[in-house]
Amino acid sequence: MTEKDTFQAAKALKLRERAKRKKPEFARPESWRYVRLKENWRRPRGLDNKVRKSFSGWPPLVKAGYRGPKVARGLHPSGYKEVLVNNVEDFREIDPKTQAIRIAHTVGKRKRARIITEARRKKLMILNVREVKEAAEGKKAEEKEEEIGKEEKEQPEKEKEAEVEEPKKEKKLGKRRSKKEQ
């Protein structure tokens, strides 16, 4: 993409965002009336259907006029074109200026970590990096375990010192006393 194209894409993204605010939420006609009908859009095809005929007072019909600018179609809101990646070999032909990678949801943690490190090395934009937090939390947990292990080793020594320093305390009698003591 040239600078002119990127400028047009950025402008188109703003225009798409503005148009999206005005676009209505399209619900399947009569879905508000019948429980058995879900709200997923279905094109009305009946002869007397009010939505198909665009009667006033009925929700609007899906039309091409609600579509976004052609330049902005298929673009992520960040302005990059999304490329789905399953392994490290998949992003050999990716242009870091115009394309960003999205790691497939079927990829496991080990391969995901390898993909993330390789992508950062190549300075590629990653759109779904949520596993990094878990890896960071895992490192913190390991550090805590190491600290606990050190404290457990030091604890027996402290207990021995405490036993030597503190003599045994005598038992205190409570409020109840036997008759002989009074």
Furnish the topology, listing elements before pairings:
Layout: H1 3-22, E1 81-85, E2 99-103, H2 109-121, E3 125-126, H3 131-165
Parallel strand pairs: 1-2, 2-3
Describe the structure.
The chain is mainly α and 182 residues long. Helix content is 37%, strand content 7%.
List keywords for this structure.
mainly alpha, three-stranded parallel sheet, 3 strands, 37% helix, flat
Count of discrete alpha- or pi-helical segments spanning 4 or more residues:
3
Q: Outline the low-pLDDT stretches.
A: none
Strand content: 5-15%
Widest β-sheet, arrangement of strands: 1-2-3
Structural class: mainly alpha
Q: Main beta sheet, described?
A: 3 strands, parallel
Tally the beta strands: 3
Any idea what the radius of gyration is? 34 Å
Mean pLDDT over the full residue set = 81
Please provide a brief summary of the model.
The protein has 182 residues and is mostly helical. It has 3 helices and 3 strands. The protein has a domain at 76-150.
